[in-house]
Write a structure and sequence with these properties.
- The chain has a single domain, classed as Aldolase class I (TIM Barrel, Alpha-Beta Barrel), CATH 3.20.20.
- Strand 5 (138-144), helix 7 (157-169) and strand 6 form a beta-alpha-beta unit.
- 47% of the residues are buried.
- It is globular.
- Helices cover 40% and strands 14% of the residues.
- By secondary structure, it is of the alpha/beta class.
- The protein binds coenzyme A and zinc ion (ZN).
- Coenzyme A binds next to helix 4 and helix 5.
Length: 308
């Protein structure tokens, strides 16, 4: 394998993808402290919350308070997930840096998650994109279930490319291909990422993996090989979509950064600081987290030899 070179962009999503899936409400002040600590870790972007319906995602019903009270560190892009026009208005009122518009590549998941057809979602997102043009607020579009849907099974790559093309025609320059329930596998990731980059050179793609079936780091390698340089990840490996059966945690940020640092990539992330932030998560959310690295410690941590 060639030595790794170049800068990667690590985007932390635990405050949104992680906290949205927690049964017990996390206090607003605790969320703010957690995000402020993440801001000191060197991420390119932090997904702070989502402006969704409080009925759909009660865990993030304090989105305005969180977005307004965090300390925004210069150089970090603070983004929020937005599913519809109402969400976009709420996000703009909090002066977000970016809105992360979401719809699903699968019709069934789109209806389960957003209670709309894909056509209706696309129309709402198109209106938001047209409204935001020239406003200075950046736009990212996330497509869920790109690598498989827990209800439909395989999702047609042609359908995925058709949706990407629809957004490319609206001059969207930033898109995320999401593996919502860990159905992606490395050869598939490599093929889809390469095809997307080749067909849509004007779009900067992020890959968003979940580790539901233990393939997230392998999928990251396959995406790197296809030229992808932006990755979503979640501290502690928490996360999951409440409207996708069987969904579980994202690729764990500290495990991702640990691996990429060892390989010589520049992730910009301070692993020691991040480990300290992740170590506080079990107390914050009231249960253990999937991170293996938190338990084992980094590769350079050695143990005393047993007494002879
Ligand atoms: N923010 C806050 N409230 C919203 C809202 C938003 N973005 N969009 C709709 N609502 C409110 C409406 O005002 C209405 O409130 P009321 O019952 O007090 O009158 C209620 O939610 C229902 O509105 P409606 O337009 O019929 O929405 P819906 O019930 O069909 O839900 C979504 C549509 C998209 C708002 C909802 O499914 C949703 O928030 N989904 C997000 C799911 C998600 O985040 N999944 C994980 C990430 S991929
Ligand atoms: Zn996700």
């Amino acid at each position: 394998m060639n030595p790794a070179t170049g800068k990667l962009f690590i985007q932390e999503v635990a405050p949104r993808d992680g906290f949205q899936n927690e049964a017990q409400f996390i206090d607003t002040d605790d969320k703010i402290r957690f995000i402020d600590a993440l801001s000191e870790c060197g991420f390119a972007k932090i997904e702070v919350t989502s402006f969704t319906s409080a009925k759909a995602i009660p865990a993030l019903r304090d989105a305005e308070a969180v977005m307004q009270q965090i300390n925004r560190r210069p150089g970090v892009v603070y983004t929020v997930l937005v599913p519809n026009l109402r969400g976009a208005e709420r996000a703009l009122s909090c002066r977000v840096d970016e809105v992360n518009l979401v719809m699903s590549a699968s019709e069934t998941h789109n209806r389960a998650n957003l209670r709309m057809s894909r056509e209706q979602s696309f129309a709402q997102l198109r209106d938001i994109i047209n409204t935001l043009r020239g406003s200075g607020v950046a736009i990212n579009v996330s497509l869920s279930t790109v690598f498989g849907c827990p209800m439909e099974g395989d999702v047609s790559v042609d359908e995925v490319m058709r949706l990407v093309d629809g957004f490319a025609q609206l001059d969207v320059r930033s898109m995320t291909l999401c593996d919502t329930t860990g159905m992606a596998y490395p050869t598939q990731v490599n093929e889809i990422a390469a095809q997307a980059r080749q067909r849509f050179a004007s779009i900067d793609f992020t890959l968003h993996f979940h580790n539901t079936r233990g393939m997230a780091l392998a999928n990251t390698m396959a995406a790197l090989d296809a030229g992808i340089r932006r990755f979503d990840a979640s501290a502690g490996g928490i996360g999951g979509c409440p409207y996708a059966p069987g969904a579980s945690g994202n690729v764990c940020t500290e495990e991702l950064v640990h691996m990429l640092n060892l390989m010589g990539y520049d992730t910009g992330v301070d692993l020691q600081r991040l480990l300290a932030v992740s170590a506080a998560l079990p107390a914050l959310i009231g249960h253990d987290v999937p991170s293996q690295l938190l338990k084992a410690g980094p590769r350079w941590r050695t143990h005393p030899a047993p007494a002879a």
